[in-house]
Amino acid sequence: MTESSSKIQKRTFPVTGMTCAACASSVETILKYTDGVKSAAVNFANNTLQVEWDERITPEGIDLALRDVGYGLVINSKEINESVREEQEKKYDQIKKQTIGAALLTLPVFVLGMFFMDWMPGRWISMALSIPVLFYFGQHFYVNAWKQAKHRKANMDTLVALSTAIAFLFSVFNTLFPKFWLNQGIQPHVYYEAATVIVVFISFGKLLEERAKSQTGTALKKLIGLQPKTLTRIQNGQSQEIKIEEVQLNDRILIKPGEKIPVDGQVLSGSSFIDESLITGEPIPVEKKQGDKIFAGTINQKGSLEISADKVGASTLLSQIIQRVQEAQGSKAPVQKLVDKIAGIFVPVVILIALLTFVIWMTFGGENAFSHALLASVSVLVIACPCALGLATPTAIMVGIGKGAENQILIRDAESLELGYKIDTIILDKTGTITEGKPTVSNYSALVHKNESLNTGTETPIVNRLSTNEEEILFSLESKSEHPLGEAVVKFLEGNKLQTVNLDSFESITSRGIKGVFKGKTYFVGNTNILKENRVAIPEDLQKLAKSWSEEAQTVIWFADQDQALAILGIQDQIKTSSKSAIQKLQQSGIAIFMLTGDNHQTATAVAKAVGIKDFRAEVMPSDKSQFVKNLQEKGKIVAMVGDGINDSEALAQADVSIAMGHGSDIAMDVAKITLITSDLEKIPQAFHLSHLTVNGVKQNLFWAFIYNLIGIPIAAGILYPINGFLLDPMIAGAAMAFSSVSVVLNSLRLKARKL
User: Fold this and answer.
1) pLDDT tens-place string over residues 147-163
2) Which among 251, 264, 275, 429 is annotated as catalytic?
3) Is 340 a catalytic residue?
4) What DSSP assignment string belongs to 733-744?
5) Phi first, then psi: what are they for 524, rounded to 5°?
6) Helix/strand/coil for 561
7) Cβ distance 19 to 144 under 8 Å?
8) Which CATH number fits domain 5-75: 3.30.70.100, 2.40.128.90, 3.90.180.10, 3.10.410.10?
9) Which of 57, 434, 493, 745 is spaced 20 to 30 A from 564 at the CA atom?
């Protein structure tokens, strides 16, 4: 049965009841076989579930399927970030109380067990104090283990419940019936301190783990913190403070000095400077006046503004950024999928090893065989916690994605972050990627007379100018033009504070330009064809200058009266200031760079030469870009595509890693796995460096998690006993287990301090 995409829903929920990576694997497995669930991915690092389901089931139904096994979903109308934060705080407080309570009762048990082990009343006191530690403060271990057992599953709680229960029951037997062992010549030891200290250490480890895990989401919290809680709405001339959730499209909103912008909108009245560093990364505030667009999360400076709400709630740019960061932090790197499989079979294997340890000790353990068998098997169960393994990848990925967000690099999935450092080939679109993507006047010169020097530099416009009257005529003509290049000329001339003149007539001539009449005299603006067709004289000096600019890939616009050309303007899509240095950095790191553009060969050549790209293709269609990516991939290249337009979307989808420029089209950003908010190419080498640092962090975490278990389990089983008589105490095993999880999280957090 095929379901239409419109019937499939996707949402992220906080998950309750998970205590280890095996739990995460359990949740995914349960939902995999639940009718109506299309896909489920658990992020153990922030206790969330990203699930897709169809009309055959509801979120309540998904929750019910999980409740039966000891897990559950938090279903409410709140934002997922708020729900996750509340659940994290609730869980942290709960574990804190459990840890403190267990520790206070365990302390006397530990003292009695270590220093007064032969004092018989001490055993009864220890038993009395151990009962609330294990079955009140630690009851969740047994409850969750039982729920798992009912469904023939096992997780970390199973290990803790088995190890502590066995140690406790053995100790109770020895307290109640010490003569059973004394009659056999064996001293009846008790291990109340081992059982209770295991609970304390594991609870303390969980407490540190929860605290550390919450720190991995600080970048997301900072983004969420940029959203104001209230705003001032103006209705019928009256201002009223309302909650952000109550704002509606087209509402008129007052923005006071120093306030954060609550929605994406357009300025209706007033003027001010806005700190847009969130969006652009630039520290200099941008002037905003009537008609200008502003974005949620940016900060108003000194002036007051009245704006209309164009996008509210989840539609704002800031909310989309938050959502992308959130989805990315919940996504899984390819290596994590392997880790999940390992975690799923890890617990049953450990239980088998513990049973095998018990059997071997009972067979070859000598006179204290049972006591040693019990201790060794309990130590194996305690030390072999899969948490370090489960946290190794997601914590590093979360910190890496958060670090990217702080540096204006939005990573939508973990796979791109993992693959980034392997990239050996990058394809760059030209317009809007290497260049600014908008035409601007780069040169301007009026009719040059004898003995006047020509200025052909492209850094600043040429100073030979028209008279004010002639500039006003040109300004008036271009103001009426619908050609995109006309807008560039108008913007350029606006800086001269010109007045428009009343033209007698105006006419647009297709593929040529425009003409107008002012006070009986005809004027032309356009290419050389409009001048030639109207037999307008072109002075040699201007002709030479026009040829020089054309060779630099500038589009030349002529301004003439009915007799002769009066001025020329060179229009160019300016190369971004950071493009050349960014491309050089990528080339120096051994990455091959290609430029693909739909522009003409002359312009492509000029741009490629300016930024140092040797391999480029001009006049390329969108499908050609995609095929070019495919051809490189067939040669074994790992390809990144960088673009900003709808025409790049096909190639972006084909590439191994796709990168969109922040000012680009929505389609390009939807397809791309990485978005550069600032549209600065310098962010690309930073993104690859971030990938390298993150993958190194994952490898380090996995190394320590695996090595820890490879070394710890044999020692816990008693492999050193025949050599030096060393047998690991279960409570030391509990401490080591807790430290392993915390060390993995702390290693991931080191990335936050690294410089990109």
Assistant:
1) 777 767 766 677 678 77
2) 429
3) no
4) HHHHHHHHHHHH
5) -125, 145
6) strand
7) yes
8) 3.30.70.100
9) 493
